[in-house]
Amino acid sequence: MTIPREALAPTPGQTIGPFFHDALPYAGDSLLVPPGSAGAVRLHGTVYDGSGAPVPDALVEIRQADPAGRPPRREGSLRRDGRFTGWGRAATDASGRYAFTTVVPGGVGGGAAFFAVVVFARGLLDRLFTRAYLPGESDTFLASLPAADAATLRVVRDEEGDLRFDLHLQGDRETVFLRYPRHDGPRSGQ
Amino acid sequence: MPTTATSIVPPPAPDPPEAPDTQERITAEIAEAQAAAATGAQPRIDFAPYRSSALRHPTKDLRHADPEGIELVAPVFGHSDIDPVEADLTVQRGGDPIGERMLLTGRVLDGDGRPVRHQLVEIWQANAGGRYLHKRDQHPAPVDPHFTGVGRCLTDGAGVYRFTTIKPGPYPWRNHLNAWRPAHIHFSLFGTEFTQRLITQMYFPGDPLFALDPIYQSITDQAVRDRLVATYDHDLTTHEWATGYRWDIVLTGAHATPLERDEQ
Ligand SMILES: [Fe+2]
């Protein structure tokens, strides 16, 4: 992969603020497949702040491949109409919980299988990216992390057979969040 | 009649149990935090003057990761996802909203200057009085029955988005005593890769609240802050109809080469 030089400085991010609920959530936003359909699984978790308190005004988005590891490039996430688009959005509830109904993604191009995750929240001044690796999956990135950090990126299968992935914005169990090479502006270098 | 000093000074307010921070203190903290910070292309996520950020930012450095697989592919949106009328926030509720009608347009580009074509843009904003429809908004300004403050559109083949809306008002918030947000419109953007996802806020030129606002000032470099400010464009302003503002958005750079983009 060749990385071109940054030509334009990026527009900076700002917090999502407290008032996004009438704008971003929509009917079916978190249902990538219909609940109860073949292969449907629940991916859920809680977003926590640095004191361990739930964050009731966060927004979580996921991007994923289909079970065969193919990234969907199909429109229709806002009006799904039975289409699997591999993208979903879930606002946290009053208890800081979010939940998606989706299918288990395959790894793309032989890579490890993970959900790409981005989280926004009131109080969080810029978006945070992370990965939610399926149980048993690993790759050189995950293997490069200290065990306690790697554990923050692992989805666990809970008693109900659902997939659980908690997000800790801060604290002892702080989730590992990611910086991709081109996130830095031209002045910061690569 | 001579005015004595005492006649124009309001009676001292009783001390609340915990005195909230004053603007003076927040302004001083902003200056301090900015002086201590390295300049950067993004806001500081650990920015104490924005009180809600205290427990909501990671304290470890972000971990470098080379994007792979699904991270190199943005979600796709199309004409089956939205209705063109969603781009006009002045016609959603069966009547004219109160306030300054404005046209807002600009281009969405990636970090290499390529237009981001046919991609979703979402906005939300307060009404002309600085009030959101949101149930948690307690500002005692009127709700406008003809204004939801919510819009969506797709960029066109040149990466251009267009909205018709009402200029939002500034609004008070509870960060500190007499805290007011500069007027702004929230923007949600997607690129061609998942890594380019962006949510931000657009501001209006010359806002007197800029210097006082810890959210805007969390970007420590003036040149970077300026990228969030729209430009008044008289050529876009329409005779006897609406004022015009222009704001271009640059996402971070894409990682996949054109060949990789085709192969995936
Ligand atoms: Fe706002």
What characteristics describe this protein?
heterodimer, A: 190 residues, mainly beta, Protocatechuate 3,4-Dioxygenase, subunit A, five-stranded mixed sheet, four-stranded antiparallel sheet, 2 helices, globular, B: 264 residues, alpha+beta, 4 helices, 11% helix, 21% strand, disordered N terminus, binds fe (ii) ion
Q: What is the topology?
A:
The complex is a heterodimer of chains A (190) and B (264).
Chain A: E1 41-48, E2 58-63, E3 87-91, E4 97-102, E5 114-121, E6 128-133, H1 140-143, H2 147-151, E7 156-157, E8 163-164, E9 167-168, E10 178-179
Parallel strand pairs in A: 1-8, 1-9
Antiparallel strand pairs in A: 1-4, 2-3, 2-5, 5-6, 7-8
Chain B: H1 5-8, H2 23-36, E1 63-64, E2 101-109, E3 120-125, E4 150-154, E5 160-166, E6 171-173, E7 179-181, E8 184-189, E9 198-203, H3 222-225, E10 231-232, E11 243-246, E12 249-250, H4 258-263
Parallel strand pairs in B: 2-11, 2-12
Antiparallel strand pairs in B: 2-5, 3-4, 3-8, 6-7, 8-9, 10-11
The structure holds fe (ii) ion.
Residues 17, 19 of chain A line the site of fe (ii) ion (FE2).
Protein described:
The complex is a heterodimer of chains A (190) and B (264). Chain A has 190 residues and is mainly beta. Chain A has a single domain, classed as Aromatic compound dioxygenase (Protocatechuate 3,4-Dioxygenase, subunit A, Sandwich), CATH 2.60.130. Chain A is 5% helix and 25% strand. Chain A contains two helices and ten strands, in the order E-E-E-E-E-E-H-H-E-E-E-E. Chain A has helices at residues 140-143, 147-151; strands at 41-48, 58-63, 87-91, 97-102, 114-121, 128-133, 156-157, 163-164, 167-168, 178-179. In chain A, strands 1, 4, 7, 8 and 9 form a five-stranded mixed β-sheet that branches. A four-stranded antiparallel β-sheet of chain A has the order 3-2-5-6, with no helix packed on it. In chain A, strand 5 and strand 6 (128-133) form a beta hairpin. Chain A is globular and about 40 Å long. The mean pLDDT of chain A is 94. With 264 residues, chain B is an alpha+beta fold. Chain B has helices at 5-8, 23-36, 222-225, 258-263; strands at residues 63-64, 101-109, 120-125, 150-154, 160-166, 171-173, 179-181, 184-189, 198-203, 231-232, 243-246, 249-250. In chain B, a hairpin with an 8-residue loop joins strand 8 and strand 9. The longest helix of chain B is centred in the N-terminal third of the chain and has 14 residues, at 23-36. The model of chain B is unreliable at 1-7 (pLDDT under 50). Chains A and B meet through strand 5, strand 6 and strand 10 of A and strand 1, strand 3, strand 9 and strand 12 of B. Strand 10 (178-179) of chain A pairs parallel with strand 1 (63-64) of chain B, so a sheet runs across the interface. Fe (ii) ion binds next to loops of chain A.
